[in-house]
Amino acid sequence: MRRSSPRSVPSAGRARSIPPSRLRSLAAHGVRLSNGSRARFRRATLKDVSTVARFRRALFEEMEEHSAESLDRYDPVFTKWYVRELRAGRLTGVVAESESGMPIATGLAWLQPRHPSPRFPHTELPYILQVYTVPDARRRGVAAAIVEALVEEARTNGYPRVLLHATRSGRSVYERLGFEATSEMRIEFPRSGLSATARTKRRGRQHAR
Description:
By secondary structure, the protein is α+β, with helices and mostly antiparallel strands. The protein has helices at about 20-30, 50-65, 70-90, 140-155, 170-175, 195-209, and strands at about 40-45, 90-95, 105-115, 125-135, 165. It has a single domain, classed as Aminopeptidase, CATH 3.40.630. It is built from 6 helices and 5 strands; from the N terminus they run H-E-H-H-E-E-E-H-E-H-H. Helix 2 crosses helix 3 (about 70-90). Mean pLDDT is about 85; it is low at about 1-5 and about 205-209.
């Protein structure tokens, strides 16, 4: 996918995989883990579906906003989505590993459909998701390196912006990388699947506003 001119838009439907050269440059950044070894980066493939799904569940478990039952129902839905979107070329991603080959972090970029506007005539934009690092490898720059690679790939392919949803723990990382909060608003309807802890925390946040 070639870089687009300011008045053109990227071709729809294909998320270009992160080039091996960019992954090698990531490793060259010198991201070191707590034991002194270097993190290794590679492209996410269909074989990584179980790892990505496991890390995604861990992300939601740490947020404490979903019951175990709802996550059990969600896991196979996400797995099917990952396989479908990766095969369709709408999804790309990075897996970080320790020198022993153990997965320690992931990050995905999905071409999200959107309506065009006069300012942005694009019908899809890269949406970064599933940025997760195992606890023992955190605060080493692994997640930031993955996000930087995904953002640079979007920029190289001519997209005008990249979207993501920041968790509280990840907000400072994204802000350091140049992400800003937007004026987007939403309304949520009551739904099942929230744990009692999540409902209590949500009520507490609402009362604190």
